[in-house]
Amino acid sequence: MDEEYASGLLENAVRELSRLPGVGRKTALRLALHILRRDESEGIALGEAIIDLRKNIRYCGECHNISETEVCPVCASPQRDHKTVCVVENVRDVMSIENTGQYNGVYHVLGGVISPMDGVGPDQLEIDSLVRRVADEGITEVILALAATMEGDTTNFYIFRKLGALEGVRITQLARGMAVGNEIEYTDELTLGRSLLQRTLFSDSFNQ
Question: What is the DSSP letter of 149?
Fold first, then answer.
């Protein structure tokens, strides 16, 4: 049974905060009361930061990472290897790989993985744009850096089949240093960095 609050404003704040992932109503109430206890300027600063985030953050027109500009800093950098593309599930994975300091290529964010149980098919992901990008930009290596899960493996294989018709493209995957079922963002930097450096041809996995 939902709690009743003396203030409709508090109830509204709790309802909106509880929409966040992993935040139930009790946690939302604690957050709302914490905001009330702080200086008014801190609460206003938090609200303005959220508004700025929604208004000014967009998705990069090339890789679909978040960015404040039409093209993200990674894609815009002449110091990056633009012939190597690392395919990841989400923006958090980009951050995790960047934190390893072991990768100097660019990225392609799919926005998810193929998951029929969740109603997510290839058409709902940035797979077709990946194929066009590889063909149009002369990409020489595509690194499949998806989670070691059934959904991740299914997506890897689908992409491999889609890219198979393109000549001169090396398709690799992270070395299996990560435990099966682990997501990229929860893998420690040392293990993730080593998996990147020791990546293998995706086709070799068929012979294992």
Answer: S
User: Residue 29 and residue 46: Cα distance in Å, rounded?
Assistant: 16
Residue 182, pLDDT score: 61
CB-based contact 91:66 (threshold 8 Å): yes
Taking the model in full, what pTM does it have? 0.85
Q: Domain locations in the chain? A: 8-56, 79-207
As averages over each run of 10 residues, the pLDDT of the chain (208 residues) reads: 73 94 94 94 94 94 96 97 97 94 96 94 96 95 93 95 90 74 75 89 74
State the fold for domain 8-56. Answer: Helicase, Ruva Protein; domain 3 (1.10.8)
Level-2 CATH architecture, domain 79-207: 3-Layer(aba) Sandwich (3.40)
Q: At residue 37, what is the residue type?
A: R
The residues with which 59 forms a beta bridge, in sequence order, are: 66
Count other Cβ atoms within 10 Å, centred on residue 180. Answer: 11
For residue 32, give Cα distances in angstroms to 38, 87, 166: 10, 38, 53
SS3 167: coil
Copy the structure tokens of residue 93: 């994975």
Give the Cα separation of 199 and 102 in Å (integer).
12
